[in-house]
Amino acid sequence: MRETSRIANGIVRGIVEPIDGCYQVWRLSTMTNQRYLSEVSSFVGVAAQWDEYPDFRDELISDGLLAARRFLEQFPYNGAGSRVTGS
Predict the structure, then answer these.
(1) In whole numbers, what is the pLDDT of the chain averaged over residues?
(2) In 22-53, which positions are buried (b, 16+ CB within 10 angstroms) versus exposed (e)?
(3) Contact assessment for residue 73 and residue 45, using Cβ atoms and an 8 Å cutoff
(4) Which segment of 5-19, 29-43, 54-68 scores lowest on mean pLDDT?
(5) Residues 85 and 16 sit within 8 Å (Cβ to Cβ)
(6) Cα–Cα distance between 68 and 53 in angstroms, integer?
(7) Averaged pLDDT for residues 13-40
(8) Distance between CA 73 and CA 25 in Å, rounded?
(9) What's 84's DSSP letter?
(10) Alpha carbon 24 to its chain's center
(11) With a threshold of 0.90, does the pTM exceed it?
């Protein structure tokens, strides 16, 4: 969860574009055996809908930012680990 918190923190701080962060979390959730899939489902949903619904991208960006804020409320970022960068 630490890596997802780091990504979410980057989204909220404006360092990572929301869609890029959502894709990063999605990739992370498929690469690891994440037992907390329900906690990252909002990120995955945004990323999964990005290409399918281009007319709703502004809303999806807002949804990605909201997903990051909600995730951090549950799993605060403690600042440990590597620096967040855009993808």
Answers:
(1) 88
(2) bbbbbeebeeeeeeeeebbebbbbbbebbeee
(3) no
(4) 29-43
(5) yes
(6) 20
(7) 87
(8) 17
(9) P
(10) 7
(11) no
Dig out the tokens for 1 from the structure.
Answer: 């969860």
**Rounded to the nearest 5 degrees, what angle is found at the Cα of 45, between the Cα atoms of 31 and 40?**
55
Distance from C-alpha of 56 to C-alpha of 58, rounded to nearest angstrom: 6
**Burial class (CB within 10 angstroms; exposed 0-12, middle 13-18, buried 19+) of 58:** exposed
Could you give the angle at which helices 37-50 and 57-74 cross, rounded to 10 degrees?
170
Q: How many residues does the chain have?
A: 87
Concatenate the DSSP letters of all residues of 21-68 into one string: HHHHHHHHHHHTT-TTHHHHHHHHHHHHHHTT-GGGHHHHHHHHHHHH
Q: 56: how many CB neighbours lie within 10 A of its CB?
A: 13
